[in-house]
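WARN no homologs supplied; continuing
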Amino acid sequence: MYAKHPKLAREFEEKTPKDKKLPMKKAWDFLKESRQTELGEFHPDFPSSYGPVTMLSNQPINNYLNMWQRNPHLFGTKLNEDIAQPYEAFLHEGMKAKPVSEDSLEWDEMGLNSKKESNMNIKPFDLRGKEGNWFSPVSNYYDEYGDSPVSLRDYKFDYGNTRTVGVRMPLTESIGQFRDRGYDDEGPEAFIEGNIPPERLVMMPKTLTHAEGKSWPDGLGRRDN
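OK structure emitted
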């Protein structure tokens, strides 16, 4: 009916209660809201037209955000529901850019003004007014026990309240700031601005924790870059 008599179909749909829509119509609505996915969105070793995974980000799962919403006193602040996005939503929504948290701003300013030798010559970030997400390079992930580099095939576990998301994007095409070392001996990190579409994201297997790791490729994280 939708193909042969669209006008009649629309009139019928308008008169039909929402909870009694035709099964075919429900399926069509679902398909219209869906998109064509690639295998590479579900595992880093699967093929993708967007190339290899270049960076990773730990993101909160839905249960963690729900716990924060119910118990703000445990976190010291209310959950900002306007920017809260759980890992489970990335497949359909992509990774939305978020304002830099006050904690991150304070941490960076404290490090910049620190007199500790380990904090000298750290590449400063300009974060105020920026929106994006934090990332580390794929090579930044190490075996917690053996301190040896881990391949994408070897990921086994993660923090309980987060999951790791990979991004298939040439680093030179991203808009962001990179440094090879963070304050207080943190490893390489980057703040990448803007939204990242779902087709470039990878739902990673549970990962190993990360240590200092390797520098960003092509000198992106050097202080003079």
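Residues 119 and 183 are 5 Å apart (CA to CA).
OK
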